[in-house]
Structures are given as C-alpha cells and as structure tokens.
C-alpha cells in the first residue's frame, strides 16, 4: 500500500516556496517505537533526545492504520470449489509477473541520501521526518496484511496465497527503504514493536478489497506525479528518495491490478445496489482522507514545489480517468460514477 506517499503527471501550477537547506547536523541515533505523527514527537526525535523514544503516539482519525479481516471468510472466497468465478489462469499469469520481481535490485541507497538529509533544516526537516514515518507505517501496514493473507490462504488457494506473499515482499522492501531514509535523520521506526503494540482496525473482506484496490491505484498516481514533477523541476529535488518513485510506483500498480482481478472474481461485491453504494462510499472516504491528510501537510508539498490542492485534484482526476479508460466492467463504472 502507499496512500501516504504521493503521486503522476506534471501539474500546471506549483507553489513558489523553495526547499530550505542548511548544514546543521543532528545528534545520536534514536529509535522511535511508535509512529510519531505529532510534530512535537518528530521534533524531539530529530534532536536525538532520549525522550523521543518514549513519546506516546498521537493517534488521530487520519493516522495510517493497520488492518485485519475475517480470514475464514477470505478462505471461503478463494476456495475454487465454492467460488466458480475464480479465474485461476489469470491469477497464474499475475503470479509469473510477481515472480519476475522487476524491482529486486532497484532499492539500493547511496551516499547522496545522508548528504541531502543533512542539508534539510528548519520546519521542512520536521515535516520530512513525519512524511517518512507515515509512509513507512502505511507501507508496513500493507506488508502485515498481505503477509497474513498469504499465510492463511496457502491451503485454500496456493496461487493467490503466493501472490499475497510476493506483494508482502514488495511492501516490506518499500517500508524498509523508508525506514533507512529515517536513519539519514538519525531516527528509526521500531517495526517489531509497532506490529505488537498498534491497534488493528477490522474490515470485512469486501471493504478490504475496496480500500486496498483504491489505495494501491491512488498510491501509483501519487508516486508517479511526484516523480515527474521533480524530474521537470530538479531544483526541488531535495532528497533522493523521490528518484526511486518511477519503478517503485510500478509495484503499486501491479498490486492494484491484482486486486482488480480479485474483485472481478467476487461479483457479489460489485453488482448489487448495496455494493454500488459501499464502493462509492469508499471512493469518497479514501479521497477525503487523502485530501485532509495532505492539507495538514502543505509545508511538505510546498517544500518540493507542489501546490497541495492541485496535486490532490490531479491524482483524483487521473484515478477516475484511469478507471474510465481502462475499465469496462460494471464495478469499475460504479467507482467512476462517484
Ligand atoms: Fe508499497
Ligand atoms: Fe502496494
């Protein structure tokens, strides 16, 4: 998953503020045990103080969440003897795609990271740390959910189970890369502790499908939009992680394609009036959550030369356009009609 990250095409207008640079250095390495989304926590952690490791998380409605679901229902949904809509040959083809592992050697760091982090100072430094923490938490959330689905579906549908396992590989890689980014700021998320201590939000399988499908596709558009924008405006390229977004977002796109195939195999989640209402509700709530999250962090987007509202509108329009152009199935149209 990647909803906390952003985005795809250049946006017409951008903010005018420039990245803030300095040569200041921060103290010793600190492990943050919770997703410290509050500015005060990030600030304390950035200073390398011991208090940062003990600061309690400030959970809000918009904090990236961890999800769990009804795994027994999931097993029934992917049992080929019960569900005759499962297109196993399509899943086999997708599995081969995931096994190819296009990004196996993509996430390799270099010395530019630390050097760039040391030059980021002032409010932008805090907001950068928060961006890395939230993004890492969101990617790690995907890892946990997909890993468990891979484990639970092994007997029922080994092909689907292996795809989930390979998607959890991708998300672990993304989360790990972001966590290494935090080390450039002398911080690290304690992901083991986070796994045990964090509250899990329960969603029925139907809602897991809606939410993850949207989150993967939105994540793709957010990453690629940022990548293309910074390629055209290199003066805002203040940290090298964005250079990795072009290949990175292809992982999210593949994840979205897999959920598209999963949803096609569950027509009961798409075609009746209740499903249509729920899918519209999820579309709306995912867009609103993204917008509210981003509006709280305009300093980050302005710091990389983006206008937050234009950026979000661009992503929403592209996602809807994508559904419209590349999807002819009834449930896609449901999403598109929102
Ligand atoms: Fe991801
Ligand atoms: Fe993903």
From TrEMBL:
Keywords: Chlorophyll biosynthesis, Iron, Metal-binding, NADP, Oxidoreductase, Photosynthesis
EC class: oxidoreductase
SUPFAM superfamilies to which the protein is assigned, alphabetical: Ferritin-like
UniProt cross-references to InterPro entries, sorted A to Z: AcsF, Ferritin-like_SF, Rr_diiron-bd_dom
Annotated GO CC locations: chloroplast thylakoid membrane
The keyword Endoplasmic reticulum belongs to this UniProt entry's keyword annotation: no
One annotated GO biological process: chlorophyll biosynthetic process
Cofactor section: Fe cation
Pfam families: Rubrerythrin (PF02915)
Enzyme Commission code: 1.14.13.81
Catalysed reactions, semicolon-separated: Mg-protoporphyrin IX 13-monomethyl ester + 3 NADPH + 3 O2 + 2 H(+) = 3,8-divinyl protochlorophyllide a + 3 NADP(+) + 5 H2O
Superkingdom assignment: Eukaryota
Pathway the protein takes part in: Porphyrin-containing compound metabolism; chlorophyll biosynthesis
Residue span, Rubrerythrin diiron-binding domain: 130-263
Protein family: Belongs to the AcsF family.
Protein's UniProt name: magnesium-protoporphyrin IX monomethyl ester (oxidative) cyclase
Organism: Gossypium raimondii (Peruvian cotton)
């Amino acid at each position: 998953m990647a909803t906390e990250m952003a985005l795809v095409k250049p946006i017409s207008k951008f903010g005018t503020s420039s990245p803030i640079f300095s040569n200041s250095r921060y103290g010793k390495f600190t492990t943050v045990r919770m997703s410290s989304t509050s500015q005060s926590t990030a600030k304390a952690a950035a200073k390398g103080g011991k208090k940062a490791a003990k600061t309690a998380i400030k959970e809000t409605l918009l904090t990236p969440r961890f999800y769990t679901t009804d795994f027994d229902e999931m097993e029934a949904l992917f049992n080929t003897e019960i569900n005759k809509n499962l297109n196993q040959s399509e899943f086999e083809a997708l599995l081969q795609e995931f096994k190819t592992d296009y990004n196996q050697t993509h996430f390799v760091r270099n010395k530019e990271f630390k050097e760039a982090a040391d030059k980021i100072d002032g409010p932008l430094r805090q907001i950068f740390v928060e961006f890395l923490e939230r993004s890492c938490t969101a990617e790690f959330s995907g890892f946990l959910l997909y890993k468990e689905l891979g484990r639970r579906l092994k007997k029922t549908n080994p092909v689907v189970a292996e795809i989930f396992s390979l998607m959890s590989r991708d998300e672990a890689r993304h989360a790990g890369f972001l966590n290494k980014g935090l080390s450039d700021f002398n911080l690290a998320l304690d992901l083991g502790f986070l796994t045990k201590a964090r509250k899990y939000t329960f969603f029925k399988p139907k809602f897991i499908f809606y939410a993850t499908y949207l989150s993967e596709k939105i994540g793709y558009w957010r990453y690629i939009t940022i990548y293309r924008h910074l390629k055209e405006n290199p003066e805002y390229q203040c940290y090298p992680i964005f250079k990795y977004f072009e290949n990175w977002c292809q992982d999210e796109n593949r994840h979205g394609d897999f959920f598209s195939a999963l949803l096609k195999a569950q027509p009961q989640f798409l075609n009746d009036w209740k499903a249509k209402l729920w899918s519209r509700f999820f579309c709306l709530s995912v867009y609103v959550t993204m917008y509210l999250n981003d509006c709280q962090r305009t300093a980050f987007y302005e710091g990389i030369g983006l206008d937050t509202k234009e950026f979000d509108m661009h992503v929403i329009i592209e996602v809807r356009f994508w559904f419209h152009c590349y999807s002819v199935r009834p449930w896609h149209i449901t999403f598109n009609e929102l």
